[in-house]
């Protein structure tokens, strides 16, 4: 089984000189010769150094691990049935996929309703998130789902006003919240603001909860892409100095005279801004949750990454003890705007294994009569079959699936196509659909009917994201109909089967020929 591709990747724009003759354990060309200009990661690192740690080009792309993990969601199949129906009358007139209910709720005392079981985890201060925010916010809001403003947004805002070390105004944060609220479907979805160490120091929780009307916040322990703090690239020395002045770690030091000279002479072309590690403690976490609620938060979420199992256990237990509304568990390999590339491929617990561990811990607490938070699984989910499998792996505790890279892809494509329509410069493959927005975007006619005169204000990227979500909705409805489950609450772990013995051993989901074994033999023998 091919696991990783050391020393070369499309993510770092590196390759081997002899692609057909590569040492499998090091990734080096079998023969490394004098005179090579250095196309592999070792070679490019000889002249660009730390740049090769990160996927490229920063600010216009997202990246996901290329590691072929031993177990993934394709190692499970969804089970259908020829009898019965759960959630509708068991007859052919009612048991149709258009009658599947995809709505879900998140939260304990003040639940949020979602039209689809999808949340978009934190998209923060990376350029790719900011550039596509209007499209993301509009598409998620119109779909009746949840969107999370990620870490460091206020700190990165060049127009932010900070007094005595505390944020008092951030036009970027305000515009991100407004972009969602402008298109929010009444009674559905919400905009969530996430905090890390620097955000908390800067007073972002107080600002968004008391001044901007935010009702849902998320404490962040980490993400699946990396086990260090958030990081971005900075293209100007002025921005680098601003970030350093706000307390961030900036490399190289923009106040060093030699670094300044190297930047002026183009020896250094960019800077890195890094966040600090959080330090989790049971008492500190409880105090943080209480602070959020005292400031007026109606719902408090927690997001944790692909840390070792003991840390996952802490997340589950602390979320239970403090009655967290949603715990998002993000598996290794899923996606990022900027993370160290080798770290992304080689650290952490992969998504399927992390989902299975989460189920074990949460199920134990539930059977002990303890409070169980809503669970969201994240880490590489992009299509409807994966959503079904994720919900089934953690049933009945999973309330939603976290997806960021897929929605961002749909938003970016929608924006590109919309721009090409405006420029009257559509590629040839679009000729079969037409030339206008309504002809090309499948859901545009529905949106025009819904929003009437406001349709013209819609960002084409939002239309693209909404259209993608509607595909997911119909596809998931069809899978659920085939399983005879006509609402999300009826999905169980019994609705999927393992296709390998290893998947069965890790997940506790029966191997496909072991599924229904007792029931099947009762039928045969009757």
Automatic annotation (TrEMBL):
Where are the residues of the annotated region Disordered? Answer: 1-23
Please provide, alphabetically and separated by semicolons, the GO molecular function terms listed in this UniProt record. Answer: glutamate synthase activity
Residue span(s) of domain Glutamate synthase = 279-408
Gene Ontology biological-process annotations: glutamate biosynthetic process
Concerning Gene3D superfamilies, the annotation shows: Aldolase class I (3.20.20.70)
Write down a Pfam family by its short name. Glu_synthase
Highest taxon above the source species = Bacteria
SUPFAM superfamilies per the UniProt record, alphabetical? FMN-linked oxidoreductases
Q: Which residues form a coiled coil?
A: none
Q: Which family does it belong to?
A: Belongs to the glutamate synthase family.
What is this protein called in UniProt?
Glutamate synthase
Natural source organism:
Candidatus Solincola sediminis
């Amino acid at each position: 089984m091919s696991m990783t591709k050391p020393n070369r990747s499309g993510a770092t724009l590196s390759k081997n000189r002899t692609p057909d003759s590569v040492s499998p354990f090091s990734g080096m060309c079998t023969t490394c010769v004098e005179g090579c200009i250095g196309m592999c990661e070792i070679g490019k690192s000889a002249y660009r150094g730390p740049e090769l740690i990160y996927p490229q080009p920063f600010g216009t792309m997202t990246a996901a691990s290329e590691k072929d993990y031993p177990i993934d969601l394709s190692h499970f199949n969804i089970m259908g049935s020829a009898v019965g129906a759960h959630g509708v009358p068991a007859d052919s007139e009612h048991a149709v996929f258009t009658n599947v209910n995809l709505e879900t709720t998140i939260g304990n005392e003040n639940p949020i309703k979602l039209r689809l079981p999808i949340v978009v985890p934190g998209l923060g201060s990376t350029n790719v998130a900011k550039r596509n925010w209007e499209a993301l916010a509009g598409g998620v809001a119109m779909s009746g789902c949840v969107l999370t403003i990620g870490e460091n947004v206020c700190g990165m805002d060049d127009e932010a006003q900070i007094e005595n070390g505390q944020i008092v105004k951030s036009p970027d944060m305000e515009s991100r919240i407004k972009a969602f609220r402008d298109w929010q479907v009444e009674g559905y979805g919400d905009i969530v603001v996430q905090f890390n160490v620097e955000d908390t120091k800067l007073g972002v929780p107080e600002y968004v909860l008391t001044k901007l009307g935010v009702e849902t916040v998320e404490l962040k322990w980490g993400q699946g892409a990396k086990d260090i703090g958030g990081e971005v690239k900075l293209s100007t020395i002025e921005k680098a100095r601003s970030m350093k002045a706000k307390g961030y770690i900036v490399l190289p030091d923009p106040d060093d005279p030699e670094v300044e000279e190297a930047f002026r002479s183009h020896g250094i072309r960019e800077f890195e801004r890094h966040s600090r590690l959080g330090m989790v403690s049971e008492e500190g976490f409880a105090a943080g949750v209480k602070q959020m609620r005292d400031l007026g938060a109606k719902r408090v979420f927690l997001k944790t990454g692909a840390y070792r199992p003991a840390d996952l256990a802490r997340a589950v237990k602390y979320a239970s003890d403090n009655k967290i509304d949603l715990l998002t568990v993000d598996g290794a390999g899923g996606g990022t705007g900027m993370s160290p590339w080798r770290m992304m491929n080689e650290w952490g617990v992969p998504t399927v294994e992390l989902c299975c561990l989460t189920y074990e811990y949460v199920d134990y607490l539930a059977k002990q009569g303890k409070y169980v938070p809503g669970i969201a699984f994240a880490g590489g989910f992009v299509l409807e079959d994966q959503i079904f499998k994720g919900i089934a792996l953690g049933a009945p505790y999973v309330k939603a699936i976290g997806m960021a890279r897929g929605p961002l892809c749909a938003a970016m494509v929608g924006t590109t196509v919309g721009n090409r329509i405006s420029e009257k410069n559509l590629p040839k493959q679009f000729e079969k659909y037409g030339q206008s927005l309504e002809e090309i975007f499948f859901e545009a006619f529905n949106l025009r009917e819904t929003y009437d005169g406001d349709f013209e204000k819609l960002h084409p990227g939002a239309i693209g994201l909404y259209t993608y979500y509607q595909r997911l909705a119909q596809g998931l409805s069809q899978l659920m109909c085939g399983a005879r489950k006509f609402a999300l609450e009826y999905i169980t772990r019994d609705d999927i089967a393992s296709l390998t013995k290893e998947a069965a051993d890790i997940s506790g989901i029966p191997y496909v020929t072991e599924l229904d074994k007792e029931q099947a033999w009762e039928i045969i023998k009757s």
